[in-house]
Every structure is written in structure tokens, then in C-alpha cells.
Amino acid sequence: MLLKSIQLTDFRQFKGQQPPIYFSTDSEKNVTIILGDNGTGKTTLAQAFTWCLYGKTDFRDKLVLCKSTAQEMTPNNEATVKVKLVLKHKGKDYTITREQRYTKSSTGALRPNQAVLSIAHKGDDGQQEFVDDTQTEFQIKKILPEDLARYFFFNGERLDAMKEEIDKGKSSEFGKAVRGILGLGAFQEALAHLKSVIKSYDNSFDSSGDSTIARYKAEIDKHEAEIEKINARLEEISNEETLAHDKCVDLAVKIKENERSQHLAKELERLIAKRKGLETTKTRSISQMFQVFNSKAHDYFSKRLVRDALELLSKADKLDKGIPDIHQRTIEYLIQRGECLCGTHIESGEPGNKAYRNLKDLENYIPPQSVGSEISNFIDQCKLRASNGENLYGDIADKYSVVRDFEGEYANLVSDINAANDTLKDMKDVGELQREKMRQEAYLDELKVESSDLNQKKGRFDNQARPLHN
Fold first, then answer.
1. CA of 373: how far to CAs of 310, 312, 334, 349, 364, in Å?
2. Whether 369 contacts 321, CB under 8 Å
3. 10 Å Cβ neighbour count for 25?
4. pTM of model > 0.70
5. First vs last C-alpha separation in the chain
6. CA-CA distances (angstroms) from residue 21 to 12, 49, 96, 143?
7. I need a surface site. Which of 19, 135, 301, 417 has the fewest CB within 10 A?
8. Domain ends where: 188, 204, 220?
């Protein structure tokens, strides 16, 4: 089998129809290297081969439609995932295509339809011919059996693990696949049948004439049966160790790819807290802005009137001849007492003395009769109002600048949060991956202990059976 090209359409993170990737078919320069950073789709590209050939992937999420395309789909709309693989096998060029249509329901749920596999090749007359739908799976097995595919399409991280498996002779799947592709299955069946015939011949041996031989034979059969059980279990353990080891390798890769998720999750928490703080600051600034306006707007907008009034009333200062904090009741009390605070005698009645007349004149300049005092109080209030409204614009401008700057910073913050969320969607929890890896490693240790115990037990049976054979 010689790969020539592959083309992806809306497969996983590859949105839309991608340009074909062509592989080197030169007899000497026959290596094609694909480079890319983590997360750019190298693993997805490798999985595209197995999905095209066998309809399977190692992804936990079995939906292979591009998520971006899925989000853009409207209800009752359709999108199609397609992988087209061109290869040469036994001198023939084959075009293998697998398509799967996805439909979005009215509720927004994605519904995958049955994937369709088609295989075309050029006939002897040069015309394109299609393999019958009932024969496509069989044709794939002839080109590359699924058991052997995992040794053709794998992640770079799997290379060392695969070498270790083969070196230790633990990969029974690899051996089985190779025997299948080389047509050695019949020889294996023949060897198994031959062993069965030999065992049947041994069992037919008439040992009734010699009780010792019969007893030895029974013990040998018992030991061989136990050894056979042990061997069967050891083979199972070997397969289970291979699977557990594969899972550990895959988990280690996923942990490495997703180790940024913890840091990203903390950064997301910080961004969300900052967004909440911005929202609180904006709400507070708007509230404060209205409070300033409500408390100072009247004074601010009346500044011109107040200024004009103060200018007019500045000429009324001559009317104010009253004594501060002196009221009419005070004057009446002094006249009734007949003596001033300073001890001067007050002679009431007409015409009275000078002190009496001065007090009566003063009544005209004190509240409630004193216009001058009222004007003086009004002037003080006007000045206070003018001063109070002086900083309205500056105070509101300060609060509004916070609100104005909020919009740009908030938009950038929301963009960062959305980007972090999108990244985290495709990441697994590292803690859970670590725990699963530890479980698999513990299981591997258990299998190794069991394998060691079984080998020791098998050795004891061999030692017990060897003298009986002799």
C-alpha cells in the first residue's frame, strides 16, 4: 500500500474543504514530514486515516463534525463531514471516501446519519469503477486489515511504546495481524490441529497394564492442564498489560497537552472577578453621577441668576443697619426692664430718653421688620449656592470618565473570557487524567504481580512433571 493524498472536509478542527495533502511517492525521497505545534491537528490528521478506512477514531467525543461549522448551522440545516484518501495497492489506484451527514434539529441538537463508504478504482479499460457497497469492507481488509492499522497510523508518542511491545514479544495483535496479511492463518490452524491429534494419540495409550505409568500419566495430564490454564491466563495478562500500557501512554500525552488548563482556569477566574469588579464600579459611578447631579444641578443652573442678584443686591448693603442676632423680643424685654445690658437707664413712654428712642429706632432694622437683615441672609445663601454649584461639571466628568472607559475595557475583558472558555472546552481536567493514569499504573502493577506468581506456579508444575516424563 502506497499513500498518495488525503483531503479533509469539516473533519474535527479542519473547517470547510481543505486542500489535499500530497505524500511523496518517489522511490528514493519517500518520506513526508508534517510539522505543527500542539493542538494544530497532527493527531486529528492521523485519526482521519482510520476514520476514512474503518469509520473509527480514538477520540472520546465521537462526533467528528467541525464544532465551528456545527455552531453556524441553523435548525433543520445539514452539514457533511468527508475524508477522501487516494492510495495505490497492488498496482491499482484506489480512491476511498467516507462521508457522514449531520442534521441540526429544531431544538439545536446534532443528529449524525449513517456514514457512507465508497471505493473507486480504474478498470482495465481506464474507466473508473466502483466497488459494490456489499464488498467495500472486504476490500478495505484486503488493502490493510484493521488489526494492523494501528501500527501504520499512530501518534509520534506511540513509537517508543510500539517498539517496546514488539521487542518484548507482547504485541499479540501485531503478530495476529501480520499472520493475517501474510496468509499464515491456515498454518496456525494446522499446527493447532496437529497438537490436538498428538494429544489424542497420547490419550489413547493403553496404560491399564501398568498402574505406575497410568498414575504418572494422570499426574502429567493434570500438570499439563494446569500449565495450559496458566499459559492462557498469561496471554490474557499480556494483552491486558498492552492495553493498560497504551492507555498510560495516551493519558501521558493528554496530560501534557492539557497541563495548561489549570493555569487557564485560574486566569479565567481572575478575568471573571475583574469583570464583576468593573460592573460594580460602573454601577457605583453612575449612581454617584446622579447623586452629584441631583444635589448640585439646581445650584449650577441658577449660577447666572444668583450672580446677577448678588450684583444688584450689593447696593443694598446700606440698608442693613441691624445688630446681628438681635430680635424684636429682645428690644421689648429691655424697654420693659427699664435698663439696657450696659446698665443705661431706659425711660419708656413718649418722648422718653435717648436710650429709649434709640431702641425704638432699632426695631425697624431687626427681624421681622429688618429688610436689610433679610437681604444680608439672602446674599449669604446665594453665595453658598454659587459655591455649591461651582464643581458640578468637574464632579460629573470624573464619574462619567469611569463609565466611558468601562465600555472599552469591558469589551476586551469579555473577549478574553470567551477565548479562555473556547480553549477550555477542548481541554480535559488534568486532575481526572492524572487519577486515571494512576489507576492504570496500579492495574499494571497488579498484572505484573499476578504474572510473576503464575510463572512461579508454572515453574513448580514443570519441575513436578519433568521427573514423571523421564
1. 15, 16, 21, 27, 11
2. no
3. 13
4. no
5. 52
6. 16, 12, 15, 21
7. 19
8. 204
Give the Cα separation of 175 and 113 in Å (integer): 35
Separation of alpha carbons 10 and 81, rounded Å: 5
DSSP string, 18-52: PPPEEPP--SSS--------TTSSHHHHHHHHHHH
For residues 182 and 176, what is the distance between their CA atoms, to the nearest angstrom? 10
Residue 340 DSSP SS3: coil
- The grid coordinates of residue 395 equal 464632579
Q: Residue 331 domain-assigned?
A: no
Q: For residue 384, tell me if it sits in a domain.
A: yes
Do 270 and 395 fall within a single domain?
yes
pLDDT per residue as tens digits for the range 9-66: 999 999 999 999 999 988 888 888 888 887 788 888 989 999 999 998 888 888 899 9
- Is residue 306 within 8 A of residue 386, CB to CB? The reply is yes
Of 238, 389, 364, the closest CA to residue 306 belongs to 389
- Taking the C-alpha atoms of residue 156 and residue 43, their distance in angstroms, rounded to an integer, is 9
Instruction: Bin 311: left if φ > 0, else alpha if -120 < ψ < 50, else beta.
Output: alpha
Given this model, what pLDDT does residue 288 score? 78
Domain termination residue (choose one: 158, 186, 204): 204
**Total structural domains within the chain:** 3
* Rounded CA separation 83/79 (Å): 14
Q: How confident is the model at residue 96 (pLDDT cuts 50, 70, 90)?
A: very high
